[in-house]
Amino acid sequence: MIAALLAIVAIAAGFFFGSIPFGYLVGRFLFGIDIRTYGSGNIGAANALRTLGKTGAGLVLLCDLLKGLLPVLVVRLLHAHPGVAAAVAAAAVSGHCFSPWLLGRGGKGVATSLGAIIALSWAAGAICVAGWFAGAVLTAFSSVGSILANVMAPFALWFLTHEPAYAAYGVFAAALVLYTHRDNIARIRAGTENKVGFLRPWQRTRATKSAMRIERGL
Q: Among 3, 16, 94, 217, which residue's Cβ finds the most Cβ atoms within 10 Å?
């Protein structure tokens, strides 16, 4: 009975911590900007990069990552059942995506999910981060990297931990991130998705050189 009560408290705490809208708070109190009124209107790091710049985006990314990492890490350090750790991970990501502080709106769950995966298995987390970089760099779409990272999660968690509860969390995370990126998927199919220029610096360099040649009449 006590174990069940503690599990419920841990899951509720994970949801509460995950629901803190750091993207909104960083924009409002450090930059004087309501991030929800700019760009995509999302409170995640990708929209923060467009509206707050690299410093603001980096801070939002770190905070969102910790929202998933810390609650799961705490319950694992307390030797909670793997199912409880997986449930806390799911609660933290759900809180981020459907924050009650923002009337059920929130981010897309990518950084928070990666933080949770790292807490469940740092090796699986490293594979997912590598998947994000591979997808994002190859396509210049941050959304592709985000989707690929989380689609890889259940496989990475299963093969590296052989823990069914962790793999189940990976399935949950993949389904949730696909859902939160449904508009991005539609824009990719329509050819209207925004690319992130810094993911392909060599292209930017070539574009800059071409522009300089045009200005010089070469």
A: 94
